[in-house]
Design a protein that fits this description.
Elements lengths: L1 H13 L17 E2 L5 H5 L27 E15 L5 E17 L5 E11 L2 E11 L2 E26 L3 E24 L9 E21 L4 E10 L1 E6 L8 E4 L3 E11 L2 E11 L12 E2 L1 E11 L3 E2 L2 E2 L2 E9 L2 E2 L6 E16 L2 E16 L3 E15 L2
Antiparallel strand pairs: 1-4, 2-3, 2-22, 3-4, 4-6, 5-6, 6-7, 7-8, 8-9, 8-10, 9-12, 10-11, 12-13, 13-15, 14-19, 15-18, 16-17, 18-20, 20-21, 21-22
């Protein structure tokens, strides 16, 4: 057990030559929060609450209150990442694709809208390879360590939303955490020893996740001036249960309360300004991970502009631009890692009857960077959301 922990600590600290994933910060703590945001929210620099209109987001349950037809949305996302160690000894590139959210809304009796969704929460997928030399019997031995982590935490969410009069909408959802993680470390002897008499060393484990969360939210429409929204997410402990053949112990982690505030304002005909803020304190988990990994409070904010009167190929095609800064809860070294993103995007209404959109696509392209005391990344991130109604 001690040997396995020592190897994992050394390997994560070096972070050489990743093969896949969306970020090497997935290696820290419980992984990197994988915000289930659609392409429109990404393009506007949003934090998942406060945008005008009707949409499906687990972080803003009240936003589904105005659905008139059964509707669904699917979001896919790809990233291309360049990384570099702070000591300039290593650099490289990798890419990854994920599907952060899938949602369905169904209007029912008494103006209730029922929603069902699957959202991402924490991403723990990454690979790394490092080479080193150590002394065995007084002779130098060359080894190569390959570490693979596959999995993460997702949420299955059921919610309801309802409008209370013309100006106020409320919503609540309950989610069940699920998912698993498989970790495997392989040490290969590549020189300085008779490889026919020394076998490769392999170790790892499997953990399954469980837990629950409840999100409540409300929005206030200010006539033609804009909207103010807020939501709060409470979570139970996140339990990681080790399989019977895993040496590592089962663990339980306290997931903090998440508070979100957002607003949008019409600043000119067809032009809206959006802004949002979210806060969560993960510092209670600090010291609960391997040496070299820390946890702390996070604050995220973003703002954007949306030009709703733009057109493309004779169809409505809103143009969007935004900026977002996000603090990450887990660091590979000292200090608080952060992500800064500039974004742009557009929507295209493929089928529309009056104000009712039956089919649409939204795209967002982001350019950003992440960094802490150990690692820095620069990335491009593309997000695509497909929305349909009346199926």
């Amino acid at each position: 057990m001690i040997r396995r922990i020592a190897l994992l600590v050394a390997l994560v600290a070096t972070l050489h030559a990743p093969a896949a994933g969306q970020s090497l910060f997935n290696a820290a703590g419980l992984g990197m929060p994988s915000d289930p945001l659609d392409a429109r929210t990404r393009a506007l620099g949003g934090v998942g609450v406060g945008l005008p209109g009707t949409f499906l987001l687990g972080s803003d349950p009240a936003a589904a209150a105005d659905y008139l037809l059964p509707s669904g949305s699917l979001t896919a996302q790809s990233s291309w990442v360049d990384f570099e160690r702070s000591d300039m000894t290593e650099s490289g590139t990798f890419q990854g694709t994920r599907f952060p959210m899938l949602g369905i809304a169904y209007p029912t009796v008494h103006s209730l809208v029922v929603t069902l969704g699957m959202d991402s929460f924490l991403d723990q997928r990454y690979e790394s390879t490092s080479s080193s030399t150590f002394s065995l019997g007084g002779d130098p031995v060359e080894v190569e360590d390959h570490f693979v982590s596959r999995g993460g935490v997702s949420q299955l969410r059921l919610g309801v939303a309802r409008r209370l009069g013309r100006s106020v909408a409320v919503g609540v959802s309950a989610a069940r955490y699920g998912g698993s993680i498989t970790r495997r470390l392989t040490r290969s002897f590549i020189g300085g020893v008779d490889t026919t008499s020394v076998s490769d060393y392999q170790d790892g484990g499997f953990w399954s996740y469980s837990g629950a969360s409840v999100t409540g939210g409300a929005s206030l429409d200010l006539g033609n001036l804009g909207r103010v929204s807020g939501s709060v997410t409470w979570s139970s402990a996140l339990d990681a249960a080790a399989s019977d053949d895993t040496e590592g112990a089962s663990r339980s982690y306290d997931v903090p309360l998440q508070v979100r505030l957002g607003a949008s304002a019409v600043v000119a005909p067809g032009l809206a300004l959006t802004a949002g803020l979210t806060r969560a304190d993960w510092s209670s988990l600090d010291g609960g991970f391997m040496d070299g990994t820390s946890a702390g409070p996070t604050t995220s904010y973003g703002f954007g502009l949306e030009l709703t009167r733009a057109r493309l190929l004779g169809r409505s095609a809103p143009l969007r631009a935004g900026y977002r800064r996000t603090e990450l809860p887990f660091a590979l070294g000292s200090g608080t890692p952060s992500e800064k993103v500039w974004a742009a995007g557009l929507g295209l209404n493929l089928s529309q009857a009056g104000d009712l959109v039956r089919a649409a696509v939204d795209v967002a392209l982001e350019r950003g960077d992440r960094s802490d005391a150990v690692l820095s990344e620069r990335f491009w991130r593309a997000t695509l959301t497909v929305r349909v109604a009346g199926f």
